[in-house]
Design a protein that fits this description.
By secondary structure, the chain is of the alpha+beta class. It is 19% helix and 28% strand.
Length: 252
């Protein structure tokens, strides 16, 4: 009888240990698929993101809804698919964008952006008028308009390139640490819908690879396995995020 009881106890203990290990592994895999942390390396998103900050990226949001104007996203960079960029979504598919010096118009209405610091206003790239954003692509810009490689330089970001949405800054602690990234939806909420008839001189936002990027800000993804190169900011997509290792590096 004692032998049977001891066997049952050992069996129950072993089963509980196995169940605990399986649940732990499952929870770890779910967390790895849902979020990823990045090290901000560069200044192209200042004053919103600062060099050396650590950011949590939500990789699941865009599996259920499309990116919104104002979202801060991490994506595989069209200029260099071995890197990841972090930028802010400005234009959605179908939008018509014009940039004249530092003035941005979306669907005919001038955009007022309170998250841009006066000293970061600028446009080192050529102005353009009536550029149409193709389907399933997004127009992205850095908040530091004077020092950002973004859609002004290399065109729109395909949705399939997007890794996830920047959710919060968790390190270092201090006055510049925003915690949860503030929403910018109010900046874009009164914009008109895309026009049903395009201007006669409208052009299409290019979607291409291999265009040299200038003055990018880098991101590094933090993980137990070390740091490897490979993350860029472009268009959102859970499929890309799930295929990339959490130790990939990204540029801003």
């Amino acid at each position: 009888m004692d032998l049977e009881l001891n066997f049952e106890k050992r069996y129950r203990l072993i089963r509980e240990i196995i169940e605990t290990l399986v649940l732990t592994v499952l929870m770890f895999l779910i967390i790895q698929m849902a979020i990823q942390n990045f090290n901000i390396d560069g200044m192209s998103m200042e004053p919103t993101l600062h060099n050396g900050e650590l950011m949590i990226v939500d990789k699941w949001s865009y599996a259920f809804h499309a990116p919104a104007r104002g979202d801060i996203i991490v994506f595989v960079a069209p200029p260099n698919p071995s890197q990841d960029y972090v930028k802010r979504v400005i234009g959605l598919p179908g939008d018509v964008i014009s940039i004249q010096n530092t003035t941005i118009s979306i669907n005919g209405k001038v955009l007022r952006e309170p998250y841009i610091a006066p000293e970061n206003q600028g446009n080192p790239y050529s102005s353009f008028v009536d550029r149409v954003i193709p389907a399933n692509t997004f127009f992205v810009l850095g908040d530091n308009r004077n020092g950002s490689s973004d859609s002004r330089a290399w065109g729109c970001v395909p949705r399939g390139n997007i890794i996830g949405r920047g959710a919060l800054i968790y390190w270092p602690f201090g006055q510049n640490n925003l915690g949860l990234l503030p929403s910018a939806t109010s900046t874009f909420e009164n914009l008109p819908a895309p026009p049903t008839h395009l201007p006669a001189d409208a052009s299409t936002c290019p979607v291409q690879n291999g265009v040299p990027a200038s003055a990018p800000v880098a991101l590094q993804s933090q993980s137990q396995g070390g740091i490897q190169t490979g993350l860029l900011l472009i268009a959102p997509s859970i499929s890309v995020a799930s295929r990339r290792r959490p130790t990939a590096k990204a540029k801003v």
